[in-house]
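Notes from the 1:1 (GR / supervisor)

We went over the backlog. Supervisor wanted to see one worked example end to end before approving the batch request, so GR pasted a single chain during the call. The sequence is below; no edits were made to it. Supervisor asked that the structure be written out right there so they could see what the output format looks like.
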Amino acid sequence: MKKRFTTISIVLLCLLSFANRAASQGITSSDSVAVKKTIEQSIGWAIEKDFNAMFRLWADNLFISWVFSNNIVVGLDNFKTFAEQWKDPDFRGTRFAFKNLRIVFSRSGDVAWYSSFLDDCSSYKGKESCMENVFVTGVLEKRDGRWVHVLMHGSYPVDKIPENYVKEFYSNLFEKKK
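Structure output shown during the call:
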């Protein structure tokens, strides 16, 4: 019984320590919820195709680098131009999942960064395709009372690149020269 009491006491002290540290940094549970929602909506917006809501998730000076070299965007105005492709009525987000989402707040509590593995699925002309297990990282900043993305990066770990991408982009590396 004494061992159990000691274990429970240690766990409670750790939890209180974390809560005190988070509170002293200005991190609230509402900040944690808002950051998680902002991260999820950076992909999930495509299900409803609410472009205005999506653009509010991003800072004016955003930087995005997403899987392919032609998917690098700097600045909100450029992102709005880049996003025109998603206005096609035949495109729609269908589902997404952030797996093992890890969020860390800065000491000041006004910056958060995250990492996760992401499944991002959409349909085009009724045919669904998915980017699965993309390693995604990002940085959010609290500006004027709301959390916005300033950076988002998605890539595949080299040992996890899907076979269809290897064939499409790297097949010439494996062909024998004649």
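Supervisor's comment: Helices lie at 2-24, 29-48, 51-55, 76-82, 163-174.
Batch request approved.
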